[in-house]
Amino acid sequence: MKCQLDKSQEQLLEIIGQELLGSSGLSFDSDQLITFGRNWFEKQLPHLRENVCTNIVTQHLLKNTDEVILIGAIVDIISSVCVGVTPATVATLIVKIGLKEFCN
């Protein structure tokens, strides 16, 4: 998880795009992967918010500034919702956005 904390939101979206399209056998450039990852993430927002923002653990952690703890908690919450992508990547993206901003 720590190595992903060094990545930008766009880099995380690119990773999501790679995970989703990686087995297609086609070649995509970075912009295409970011766009695909962003589209997937935006489609998943209602489910992710429903699971993350209403969870009692998340509510308790809103004031926590330890990103690794936040990511670990979010991974536990979203692991059943994230199909085709690594939950840790999505959780890191949520933490990069900011949990308060994500849930508002």
Q: Low-confidence spans: pLDDT under 50, at least 5 residues? A: none
Mean of the pLDDT scores?
89
Total of helices: 7
Question: Could you give the count of β-strands?
Answer: 0
Q: Which structural class fits the helix and strand makeup?
A: mainly alpha
Cα distance, first to last residue? 25 Å
Keywords:
single chain; 104 residues; mainly alpha
3D structure, described in words:
This protein is an all-alpha fold and 104 residues long. It has one domain. Helices cover 72% and strands 0% of the residues. It contains seven helices and no strands. It has helices at 2-5, 9-21, 30-53, 56-61, 67-78, 87-97, 99-103. The radius of gyration is 13 Å and the shape is elongated. The model has no long low-confidence stretch (mean pLDDT 89).
